[in-house]
Amino acid sequence: VQLVESGGDSVQAGGSLRLSCVVSGSTYRPYCMGWFRQTPGKEREGVAVEEGDGTFTYADSVKGRFTASKDNTKNTLYLQMSNLNPEDTAMYYCASERCAAVTGLDLLGWQGYWGQGTQVTVS
Predict the structure, then answer these.
(1) Burial of 46 by CB count in 10 Å (0-12 exposed, 13-18 middle, 19+ buried)?
(2) pLDDT tens, 10-66?
(3) Exposure of 16 by Cβ count < 10 A (0-12 exposed, 13-18 middle, 19+ buried)?
(4) Are 26 and 74 in contact (CB under 8 A)?
(5) What 3-state class would DSSP assign to 63?
(6) For residue 4, with 0-12 CB atoms within 10 Å meaning exposed, 13-18 middle and 19 or more buried, which class applies?
(7) How many CB atoms lie within 10 A of CB 113?
């Protein structure tokens, strides 16, 4: 299984970006996906994760600004980010996990597959 993120870039505060994560290879069925981010010296944190019912749970810091979506026909997860601020600067990772194992934004519930990350820089 391979997860490949794309779409990271350097943008000015107030700008927007759309991240994508494509899953290839055999994976769990059903599987949930999520977005996480990490800055140097800090723990990786959940940003937007899919729950077993197909809805997404968001971190408080991104509610109202970020929207996650998933296209099962393309095995792709998206993260539309708007009104970006410098605190959003991080490496963004996507993850895939059995939906039965997912525990919301808690990283412990995401022990499956991870991508290599895509850098988002907001200045």
Answers:
(1) buried
(2) 999 999 999 999 998 876 677 899 999 999 999 999 999 999 899 999 999 999 999
(3) exposed
(4) no
(5) coil
(6) middle
(7) 18
CA distance 45 to 106: 8
Contact 9, 120 (CB under 8 A): yes
| CA quadruple 58, 30, 75, 38: dihedral sign | positive
* Omega of the bond leading into 30 within 30 degrees of 0 (cis): yes
Neighbours of 39 (CB within 10 A): 13
Q: What are 69's strand-pairing partners? A: 78
| Cβ(48)–Cβ(34) below 8 Å | yes
Residue 112 DSSP symbol: S
Asked if residue 19 lies in contact with residue 115, where contact means CB atoms within 8 angstroms, the answer is no
Strand partners, 32: 97
| Tokens 């026909």 belong to residue | 73
pLDDT category of residue 103 using cuts at 50, 70 and 90:
confident
